[in-house]
Amino acid sequence: MSATRVCALSELEQDSAIRVEVNGVAIAVVRDSNDEVHAIGDVCTHGDISLAEGFVDGDTIECWAHGSAFSLRSGKPLNLPAYEPVPVYAVTIEGDDVLIDPAVLKEL
């Protein structure tokens, strides 16, 4: 599988996230406070809630429903009630295109 264009970099506002789907995989694409772009599994591991609807703060995203925050770098939950990490995918920026391959997990 190869990387797929999911959005334009210019579509991502700082400290915000959008939900995309690539080959049936739901992914939250997030632009953090440092203008870095991250791609993580979009479903909170505590409940079936879209993380893209959550709150971005620094390099974390918080699930709006129960307050679990996840590291955008590692996918690890930073507080309860979630205790399982979400997958983190490699992101490639080419010009204004944001590309993600859901088969390629980011190396930590």
TrEMBL record:
Sorted keywords for this record are:
2Fe-2S, Iron, Iron-sulfur, Metal-binding
**Rieske domain: which residues?**
4-100
Q: What is this protein called?
A: Non-heme iron oxygenase ferredoxin subunit
The cross-references to PANTHER family, in alphabetical order and at most eight, read: 3-PHENYLPROPIONATE_CINNAMIC ACID DIOXYGENASE FERREDOXIN SUBUNIT, FERREDOXIN-RELATED
Q: Where is the signal peptide?
A: none
Cross-referenced Pfam families, in alphabetical order? Rieske (PF00355)
What domain of life does the native source organism fall in?
A: Bacteria
Q: What InterPro entries does the database record attribute to this sequence?
A: Rieske_2Fe-2S, Rieske_2Fe-2S_sf
